[in-house]
Give the backbone structure.
Amino acid sequence: MSIIDRIINGEKLSAEEWMEAIEYTDGEEIRAAASSVRDRIYGKKVFARGLIEFTSYCRNDCFYCGLRKSNREALRYRLSSDSIMESVDLGYEAGFRTFVLQGGEDNYFSDERLIGMIKEIKSIYPDVAVTLSVGERSYESYKALREAGADRYLLRHETADSAHYRVLHPDSMSQENRIECLHNLKKLGYQTGAGMMVGSPGSSIRTLAEDMVFMKELNPEMVGIGPFIPHSSTPFKDEKRGSVELTLRMVALVRLMLPHAMIPATTALATASDDGQLQGILHGANVIMPDITPTEERAKYMIYDGKKITGDEAGENLEKIARRMETIGYTLSMERGDYIP
Ligand code: SAH
């Protein structure tokens, strides 16, 4: 049996076998297989999520990220709860039924403040899903946010390789903690998102293979994958950008390994290549996350250089996005779009 068939059959591959799958399988063959697996489960639909980047403050110092606390040049902002609600109102009117609240790890957003926001959104719009992406917190905190009504949580594992984790993060951070957070989120019944950058400094085919082994075990409901893109005011400013082709290959392999996963065609993919978003869909992704952050703050949420902010992928261009999806035979779905187990 071919290695692709073994992945489709749900077999657990070793890291060595994943390395072989990543390096030696035919790109077009995995793309076509991934696309048909996605079509079988979710149809020709691409689910839209309204992304609200509500704080650019961060207490962490990840070497790759433009929001790291040591970046004195970063422009910092926090949206007020009125401003967040306004974004939700406008987004709801535009048709969004999932809102993703993403931000740096900002102490200002205590459990109490986040709970207030979640409850307000859910009481006015009981039919929407709320996705949080605010980094590592305690079990008790995740539990309280879940009880307040949060449905989903995005927390990329970033890398499953411990030596690679140390290349990307300062000593104050711990891979063990991040992985424990992911297990806690699963335990609490969140639809949980993991994922990684492709081509970050210190990454290799082996670290990507370890990511696959890790995610097979974790079985996340969502997986975010994008190319690493350097940011000019970080220690990685002179590092190479990750390969778009390899990123697409990883998207397709994740689709084959986790057929039911919700997989976004990420902004990083759209930033790295003009047709990155469509290529992501053609490689098995089934979610897009148009940015609906107020335009004035949007430019300040710069996790990497050149991040697309008001381009054709942005929230105000939904019609354009829909038409672009149609050119490749897909429809933009504004449904809540929960994970199908
Ligand atoms: N603070 C939250 C949200 C982080 S931003 C958290 O910790 O989960 C979302 C993702 O952007 C990160 O998980 C990381 O994988 C990605 N990212 C950060 N810097 C990047 C860069 N320079 N290039 C590409 N992706 C990057």
Remarks:
- The domain at 12-333 is CATH 3.20.20.70 (TIM Barrel).
- The pocket of S-adenosyl-L-homocysteine is lined by residues 64-65, 102, 104-105, 133, 135, 155-156, 158, 197, 226, 228-229, 231, 268, 303-304 (CB under 6 Å).
- The mean pLDDT is 97.
